[in-house]
Design goal:
By secondary structure, the chain is of the alpha/beta class. It is built from 13 helices and 13 strands. It folds into two domains: 236 residues, Type I PLP-dependent aspartate aminotransferase-like (Major domain) (Aspartate Aminotransferase, domain 2, 3-Layer(aba) Sandwich); 135 residues, Aspartate Aminotransferase, domain 1 (Alpha-Beta Complex).
Length: 379
């Protein structure tokens, strides 16, 4: 069993993908070729944004967004400690300070009720993360930002394809950033990402930033990066867009099946009624995770942990945590989640029998010989 089965996806969709790749090989415009522009138009239309600016990775998308807003030394950006490090890493890379606030118990997303107390005169932006595919409470975050003159950057790396109160993820803040890492719901065959915005000036700035700050060829208006999406990756994404909605529906059906089988066994994900999830991961909570992982591995079931250590407890942020007075226990919801979360295999081609095998193996892990200790902790 594969955690994410990209090979099966390719075998089933080979004609779409090969044709798009061959077109690029034939015309030879490998950097900012026509597929890049076509992809940006189609993605912008899909999320309902005026502009899409593609990038070389989701990490570059975050970096470009922060740079476009002028984030730098002596600035703070409020975000969550329960995310992949790229979210905070790009803030730090620009010399600014990530300021963490805890997450909600149900969604694992940033808790809007904790944002306002964290705002200081140095705060310039709020960067909520849509973890596991479900958008954060962006309406509340946007209201807080408006009251304080701050900008919201939506980290939609895991939620492209999801909806929040009728609006598409990626178009829920001043800038939305997403990732097309291969394992994402819409993934290319390498790194890739995009920024979305309705602001014409920001869009122009983002386009300059991703191409070495060029206003025109060899005319540089600002310091930028090499953040361009390869044409070949754009071609792959265009091919996959043809069946993306079908795969999103399949992900949702698989998640529903998991939940039906597991809701009385473990803590299962809960999608709030005013939004949907792209189901980038199906993440449960289990007691004594190593025992459960061992049992599932013995049954040929791959798992992953997203994420085993909150950012404020990472070695790289030891100095920041000391400066800010953060310690184990400072963000109790994030820390508790990091000890218990476990992501199960989920991809559009997972078969019903495989889902049932995962569920049955999980029940056995919690109730069988290997699970005795886990069950004691669960009680």
């Amino acid at each position: 069993m594969e955690f994410v089965d990209l090979r099966q996806q390719y075998r089933r969709r080979k004609a779409y993908i090969d044709a798009r790749i061959q077109a690029v090989l034939d015309h030879g415009r490998f950097i900012l070729g026509p597929e890049v522009q076509e992809l940006e138009v189609r993605l912008a239309k899909r999320v309902g944004a005026r502009h899409c600016v593609s990038s070389a990775s989701g990490t570059d998308a975050l970096l470009m967004a922060l740079m476009a807003l002028g984030i730098g030394p002596n600035h703070e950006v409020i975000t969550t400690p329960f995310t992949f490090i790229a979210t905070a890493e790009m803030i730090t890379l620009l010399g600014a300070r990530p300021v963490f606030v805890d997450i909600e118990r149900g969604s694992y997303n940033i808790d809007p009720n904790l944002i306002e107390p964290a705002i200081t005169p140095l705060t310039r932006a709020i960067l909520p993360v849509n973890l596991y595919g479900q958008p954060a409470e962006l309406e509340a975050v946007n209201r807080i930002a408006a009251r304080h003159g701050l900008t919201v950057i939506e980290d939609a790396a895991q939620s492209f394809g999801a909806l929040y109160r009728g609006k598409h993820s990626g178009n829920l803040g001043a800038i939305g950033c997403t990732s097309f890492f291969p394992s994402k719901p819409l993934g290319c065959y390498g790194d890739g990402g995009a920024c979305f915005t309705n602001d014409d000036h920001l869009a122009g700035t983002l386009r300059e930033l991703r191409n070495h700050g060029q206003l025109a060829r060899y005319r540089h208006s600002r310091v930028g990066i090499n953040g361009r999406l390869d044409t070949l990756q754009a071609a792959v994404l265009l091919a996959k867009l043809e069946f993306f909605d079908e795969e999103l529906a399949a992900r949702s059906e698989i998640a529903d099946r998991y939940t039906a089988l597991l809701q009385h066994v473990v803590r299962t994900p809960r999608v709030l009624p005013d939004r949907s999830s792209a189901w980038a991961q199906y993440t449960i909570e289990v007691p004594d995770r190593p025992i459960v992982e061992q049992a599932l591995q013995a049954g040929g079931i791959p798992t992953a942990v997203h994420y085993p250590l909150p950012l404020h407890l990472q070695a790289v942020y030891a100095g920041l945590s000391l400066e800010m007075g953060w310690f184990p226990g400072s963000f109790p919801v994030a820390e508790a989640a990091s000890e218990r979360v476990l992501s199960l295999p989920l991809h559009p081609y997972l078969r019903p029998g495989e889902i049932e095998h995962v569920a049955e193996s999980l029940r056995e892990a919690l109730h069988g010989p290997l699970g005795d200790e886990a069950m004691n902790l669960r009680r």
